[in-house]
Amino acid sequence: MSFAELPQPAPGEVLLICTCYENGRALRGGLLDEIAARREDDRLILEGSGVRLRMVEDSGWDYLHGGNIPALVPGSSPVPPVAVVADIPVVYGGDGPLLVDLAAMPGRGVRIPSARLGEILAVLLDGALTFDDLVLGMDRYGTYQGDGGRPAFPTPTSTPPHRSFPPLPSTAAALLVRTCFDDEAGWQALLGELGGTDADGWVGADLDPDEIDEEHYPLTALVVSDPAFEGLQPGQVPALVPPDEHTTLVALADARTFAEPGRPLTVVDLYDSPGQQAVLPCREVGSMACNLEIANMDFHEYVAEEGMKPWWEGA
Questions:
Q1: What are the pLDDT digits (tens) for 102-120?
Q2: pTM
């Protein structure tokens, strides 16, 4: 699937990208009323900061995910290094806009309160604040300096220098990606605990309904065990997921998986706050995938909160 390229913003200008449409009409919810700006043609001048937003829309971007936006930026040096996205959570959930990193770790995202958009963009553009600062300041809802509680496992921001990764396989299901290759026995034990792989490289593909434990629903996922993904960090994942399928989630088997009880997997959000992580025992990831797929639960409900016992550990 191909998407139209984004326009090149003028110096000091930030793109406001609409990714939610109804009958070809761009939807932005109440965002334009919430960000305190005056309008000049297709541009918004944010009050108090003077930051200019250029509103861009193309119905072909409907359901485009934040992690896929960097691939649509023309040239090799995007200016500025961030984009603002009005997506489904903004339109139908009343959430703040999504900021997408276009430079440091392209494709990761953080939500910010609408009323603070001008303030935060201004300090990002002058270098007083970095995207890493936004990520480190997220609450469990993926909102910068939100009041939803601090995550027990903050999303890491450091990455190996000058490291690139190939695209992940395209699938509408889940992906289980191995990122640590130091413990082959531990990896095989993990696969065994998940039911083993079939000839096509899937775990949980041929489930017997009579043997399913509904309390710990089995994970059905395409397994990716390729050293090319060694060291992959959560924030790098969204940009590697092809846009042609609505992948449920990506679970990383990293160093923590092979060192801690319960073989915890690092699950990566691809949609609400791309790149945010939730760390939970491997036995819970199948239920998470199932609930996300049917929209019964949201990603943030699986993010363990600092100082509180995760719900899956019981009372």
A1: 999 999 999 999 999 999 9
A2: 0.94
